[in-house]
Amino acid sequence: MEEFLPIAYFEGKFVPFREANVSIATHALHYGTGAFGGLRGWVDEAQPDQALLFRLDRHCQRLSHSARFMHYDLPPDKIESAMIEFIKQNKPTKPFYMRPFVYSSGLGIAPRLHDIEQNFFIYGLYLGEYLSKPEGVSCRMSSWHRQEDISLPLRGKISGAYITSSLAKTEAYSSGFDEAILLNSQGKVSEATGMNIFMVRNGKLYTPGADQDILEGITRDSIITVARNLGIEVIERPIDKSELFIADEVFLCGTAAKVSMVSRVENYQIPHAPGEITSKIKNEMTAITQGKHDSYKDWVKTVTF
Question: What is the pTM of this model?
Fold first, then answer.
């Protein structure tokens, strides 16, 4: 059972988590008119009164953009200041995850984004490993397809869009797999249920590009930069599902999942799991997010409480 942080930010003030409740008539509950972010935080081992946040500015910027899709003007600096104060209020003692959420909080029944109240809240929970297994995770190709950007803004983490991820995740779990991989409407690999995907073939790193109806993940963007700085060639292009079956390495990535090695796709074993490139990237990302990599100090925000 999740262990939630005791204080939430709700309707412009900090309140006990259990008191941060919405009405059953809330518009976002019925129509998915919300958008969320997700940000991990680590308590500094050397300074237990400090939390380390990975790319806080980028997370706040993306949530602000998501709010704009819903005609809600929420500047990144307002999100950032609320998240920093949220940490100071909660004083976390171990690794945690923050979930900021913008939503239509009005109680109307018409599906719309105009003339309706909008709001913003933050809650958090302690979070260890989300997906990673030492032996790697197994994935199936989902029968559900990733939506198209022509239908909804996939560059935002729009809450209503995640019904597809939920269907795919449960389908995978029910058939004996850990995770699902969704294809886009063109039959190309898009992403997992809440993670981006990479594969290694012949020493090169491949990942679907932004034109493949993916979420433009912040962890994904970071891995591309890190890999290139390690001298690994990164290629963004469409990927066929059959390529995953013969890949040398495959891994998933995201804020919650971090870097999670894949050991099997359908009934095809990934031969090099863990692989050299996956391991290099995972080790680099771990050091960076924990503030132990001098070259990426500007990616980590320190909050003292």
Answer: 0.95
Share of residues in the chain with pLDDT > 70 (%): 99
Structural domains of the chain ordered from first start: 3-126 (3.30.470.10), 137-289 (3.20.10.10)
Mean pLDDT score of the chain: 95
Ramachandran category for residue 247: left, alpha or beta (phi over 0 → left; psi -120 to 50 → alpha)? beta
Low-confidence ranges of the chain (pLDDT < 50): none
Q: Please give the pLDDT value at position 233.
A: 98
